């Protein structure tokens, strides 16, 4: 229950309701416990003695008691729901903010599907447990204890039946709970997997259709769905035995009471109303124990969800601000790597960058070339601290990036990635995403530089055109150009274009490069490109191979000194590129 205890502080804003709700439930319980004694009074004193006035008075009193009890129950339910829904809303907010603080490494660790499950299904499980606790956690124990006391007061000679049945029920309940709790954890884990498959499929549905892989994806989903179903059935089957066993126990208890109590009534040692009252208290006692067992199972299931929620809340972001981090820095954009090495997942994986050292002066254009997996994207991801270097230092203007406030650092770095992520909203909103206060003139200027203005103007609503989720109503090239405009609008000290023109044609790419020539001189620019023609004019070209800088220099220098660069050049331009040599 340690994980559940860690979530208790989030109930603090609703402390008053948490206190009031149990008292209202106690009122309902007390009223419910009075009813069997009222029935006993009607039968033994009213009916047996033909006292009509007593029957009417007691009936009216029972009605008042029922109304008071109903008020307590309904008010308890109202406050329990307010606490539960408020807690759920707050918890989702806290989890979402926590996820926003995660570094890329943390996001790699959890995965999108898991995080979606934890923000939705797991929070719902804990919400249901809170309602159950505020209602049944009070009702069931008080009914159990109160009904036992009332049963003793009503007929002590029949108490032995309760003493036989209660231990049997308790042992069975504990065994089932012990077996069911780990099963519910496994159910949530398999729900994670189902969400991962579904999220991947929906995000990549166009790729699925393009390659005709719908049957394969259906099989993946079916496997995940079947695994979840089977484990849910196993967990449900484990706890499904409990209600039936409880009802059997209750019925056996009623039979026992009627058998032995009937004998006492026949012999004149017990009144009929007394016997009926005891049967009611017996039923309440055993039924309340069944409620306790179901409540414990639900709480056990919520504990599994609380543990998963706590895993997110207790995760320390890999990338954090240092104490006394610099919040104000007029960065000019001099970037230097000093013996930088980097591994994903700490020491558990092979290094993707090994002893990388170079310097990019303000206004320089630095191009990164290399085969897939050579470490190009990993290198530029270290500049805005998406990840932190495993060894060495990344410096901007002589300041270690780890000494800069993360928000301050990233405001000075514009990034356009190969996978252009756009959000629902207008084109203008997407370009302004990093600078919501940018003027219309600045937005248009950035779009023109990215060669996006003409196609934007071709839409009937221009910059007010509404984009679907992830910019679904734009082509890949159009999305990339808007992403470049978004990066340019920041007017950053460092501009990173990570293969950001891969989806545009050669002619459009040439126009973009021409338009960016003057703009890139205002920044320190890093360009990752698959087409070597894109980087020929760069001030410095870094050739990466196996995570190391195999060569660096200008195009002409590398043509003379780097066999790897010459191979890349020849494979793409061949003799037709002689003019560039």
Q: How is this fold's topology laid out?
A:
Layout: H1 2-7, H2 15-47, H3 52-101, H4 104-110, H5 112-154, H6 159-203, H7 205-210, H8 214-267, H9 272-314, E1 335-343, E2 351-360, E3 365-370, H10 376-381, E4 391-396, E5 399-400, H11 406-411, E6 413-416, E7 425-426, H12 427-431, H13 440-449, H14 453-457, E8 466-467, H15 476-489, E9 494-498, H16 506-520, E10 524-528, E11 540-545, E12 548-553, H17 555-561, H18 563-572
Helix pairs in contact: 2-3, 2-5, 2-9, 3-5, 5-6, 5-9, 6-8, 6-9, 8-9, 13-15, 17-18
Rg for CA atoms: 35 Å
Principal-axes geometry comes out as elongated
CATH topology of the largest domain: ABC transporter transmembrane region fold
Characterize the biggest β-sheet. Answer: 6 strands, mixed
What structural category do the secondary elements indicate? Answer: alpha/beta
How many structural domains? 2
CATH superfamily of the largest domain: ABC transporter type 1, transmembrane domain
N-end to C-end Cα span: 70 Å
**What's the order of the H and E elements?**
HHHHHHHHHEEEHEEHEEHHHEHEHEEEHH
Helix content: 55-70%
Low-confidence parts lasting 5 or more residues at pLDDT below 50? 576-581
From the coordinates shown, what is the CATH architecture of the largest domain? Answer: Up-down Bundle
- Measured by DSSP, the beta-strand proportion falls in 5-15%
Write down how many β-strands occur, each being a DSSP E stretch of 2 or more residues: 12
Biggest sheet strand line-up = 6-9-10-3-11-12
């Amino acid at each position: 229950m340690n994980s559940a205890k860690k979530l208790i502080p989030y109930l603090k804003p609703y402390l008053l309701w948490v206190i009031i709700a149990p008292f209202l439930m106690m009122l309902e319980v007390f009223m419910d416990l009075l009813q069997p004694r009222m029935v006993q009074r009607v039968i033994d004193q009213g009916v047996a003695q033909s006292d009509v006035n007593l029957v009417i008075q007691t009936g009216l009193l029972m009605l008042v008691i029922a109304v008071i009890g109903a008020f307590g129950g309904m008010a308890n339910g109202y406050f329990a729901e307010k606490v539960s829904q408020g807690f759920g809303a707050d918890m989702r907010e806290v989890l979402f903010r926590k996820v926003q603080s995660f570094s890329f490494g943390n996001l790699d660790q959890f995965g999108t599907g898991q995080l979606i499950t934890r923000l939705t299904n797991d929070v719902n499980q804990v919400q249901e447990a809170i309602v159950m606790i505020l209602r049944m956690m009070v009702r069931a124990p008080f009914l159990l204890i109160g009904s036992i006391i009332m049963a003793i007061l009503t007929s002590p000679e029949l108490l032995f039946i309760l003493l036989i049945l209660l231990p049997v029920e308790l042992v069975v309940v504990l065994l089932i709970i012990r077996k069911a709790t780990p099963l519910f954890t496994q159910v949530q884990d398999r729900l994670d997997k189902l969400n991962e498959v579904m999220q991947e499929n929906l995000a990549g549905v166009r790729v699925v259709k393009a390659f005709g892989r719908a049957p394969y994806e259906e099989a993946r989903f079916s496997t995940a769905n079947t695994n979840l179903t089977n484990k849910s059935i196993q967990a449900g089957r484990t706890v499904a035995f409990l209600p039936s066993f409880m009802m059997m126990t209750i019925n056996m208890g009623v039979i026992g009471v009627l058998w032995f109590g009937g004998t006492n009534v026949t012999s004149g040692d017990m009144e009929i109303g007394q016997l009926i009252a005891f049967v009611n208290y017996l039923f309440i006692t055993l039924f309340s124990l069944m409620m306790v067992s179901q409540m414990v199972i639900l709480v056990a299931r919520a504990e599994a969800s609380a543990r998963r929620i706590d895993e997110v809340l207790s995760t320390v972001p890999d990338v954090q601000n240092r104490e006394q981090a610099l919040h104000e820095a007029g960065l000019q954009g001099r970037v230097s790597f000093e013996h930088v090495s980097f591994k994903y997942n700490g020491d558990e994986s092979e290094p993707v960058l090994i002893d990388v050292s170079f310097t990019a002066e303000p206004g320089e254009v630095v191009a990164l070339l290399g085969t897939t997996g050579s470490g190009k994207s990993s290198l530029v991801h270290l500049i805005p601290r998406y990840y932190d270097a495993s060894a060495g230092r990344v410096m901007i203007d002589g300041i270690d990036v780890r000494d800069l406030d993360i928000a301050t650092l990233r405001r000075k770095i514009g990034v356009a990635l190969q996978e252009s992520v756009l959000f629902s909203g207008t084109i203008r909103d997407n370009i302004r995403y990093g600078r919501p206060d940018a003027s219309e003139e600045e937005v248009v200027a950035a779009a023109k530089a990215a060669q996006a203005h003409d196609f934007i103007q071709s839409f009937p609503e221009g910059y007010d055109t509404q984009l679907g989720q992830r910019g679904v109503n734009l082509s890949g090239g159009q999305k990339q150009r808007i992403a470049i405009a978004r990066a340019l609008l920041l007017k950053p000290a460092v501009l990173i274009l990570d293969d950001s023109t891969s989806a545009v044609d050669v002619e459009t790419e040439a126009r973009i490069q021409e338009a960016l020539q003057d703009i890139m001189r205002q920044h320190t620019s890093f360009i990752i490109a698959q087409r070597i023609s894109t980087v020929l004019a760069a001030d410095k070209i870094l050739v990466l191979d196996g995570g190391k800088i195999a060569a660096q220099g200008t195009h002409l220098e590398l043509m003379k000194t780097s066999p790897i660069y010459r191979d890349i050049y020849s494979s793409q331009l061949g003799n037709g590129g002689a003019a560039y040599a």
